[in-house]
């Protein structure tokens, strides 16, 4: 009813303006053209006078005029004998007065079907915006006429409600300062690449996320009233598009660096494709997978030679900060490990079908420990054999004692700022290897060896091997003459920013122990 009311109100614009001039003579306020457009029988809605509000109202006005022209054309062409009785229903709050009900309600027989007749009644100013009506029609001719008119109106307005970016029905339309209206998601994605209007190329001056930018409510209401089924289909298509890639490739993948379960990861997202990925993650479950870049093109199982390693960590976004230029700073934490079973590309970023990777049951872990520790003694030079003979608790103690020794020597990678980020060394043997790898300044290729493992014991043996190699290199270096000693490279800064796969030329720290580890 409100749509028909708005359509009819356009025809009353001149009459409302004339009444306003008469009211001004009587020292009353002169309504604006926009107020007159929405006025009938004393009812009106006041619009904001900002440029965006005026532009948004002009879009709705153009659509209303187009619909009006179609209905008026049908109104002039219908046969005189095709009539409909339109009866206005009296509102409940008017029934309490002493005035007869017949004097309050409007009942007229008008030419045309229900749509044309109701429009004609509203155009005459005899129908309230909130009023409800009922009809008396004869035969199916009027119903067929209504269907025909509605179909022609929708076809005529199709070009007016199409987004100029996606060429689909406008979804949550937003009007810019330059007067163009686009889907909210389309405009947001456009701002990832440029801060100019995609239609006229004027500077927009809008925040990239469109935070605080209102929707074109008038246009939204018109679309919901005119074509609710089309709007519902458009929403469903948008949800399917946001869900991920085709088929089961529904997990977004950020090919960047390493992350570990229960460990914090700080990232700086600035590429347009990853901005889109981040928005979709925030709108869904706030999770995405992070994989290490395969710089050497090593084959990854069934995946073959791909640009990432097949094992990664699922990250959960804890905090998100959007900067003025559209860059995002996020604080995330590793949730669990996974293996990529299949992969593809969706809107420029990688997506995949992943399989969660969990450890073996505790009983299997205990059986494996008993089997390895019960073997015969091994010679001192067999480092791997010695680690196999150590219990799981002894391997954990080896790692914790190494941390205490490095703390006593003021190792740079164990400074307080590092511990403030990653926390104190955990006592849980399942968590300690991931914590140790997060703070130890060695190459990511070495750290990656922890991700495919299925037992706590296997991970503890890996970090114990690192410790043995570091200590052996320290001993070998200390025995050399001062001039013959090789200067070790300083450890890399433990940064909180992520890099994309296009930024892989950053300096890597070799497995060779750092100067802080030798102190």
UniProtKB/TrEMBL annotation:
Record domain RING-type: where: 163-201
InterPro entries, per the entry: Lon_prtase_N, Lon_prtase_N_sf, PUA-like_sf, Znf_RING, Znf_RING/FYVE/PHD, Znf_RING_CS
Claim: Zinc-finger is one of the keywords in the record: yes
Record's keyword annotation contains Zinc: yes
Domain Lon N-terminal: 242-471
Gene3D superfamilies the UniProt entry points to: 1.20.58.1480, LON domain-like (2.30.130.40), Zinc/RING finger domain, C3HC4 (zinc finger) (3.30.40.10)
One example GO MF annotation: zinc ion binding
Acidic residues compositional bias, start-end: 493-510
UniProt keyword annotations, A-Z: Metal-binding, Zinc, Zinc-finger
Region span, Disordered: 481-519
Protein name (record): RING-type domain-containing protein
Originating organism: Cryoendolithus antarcticus
Lineage: Eukaryota, Fungi, Dikarya, Ascomycota, Pezizomycotina
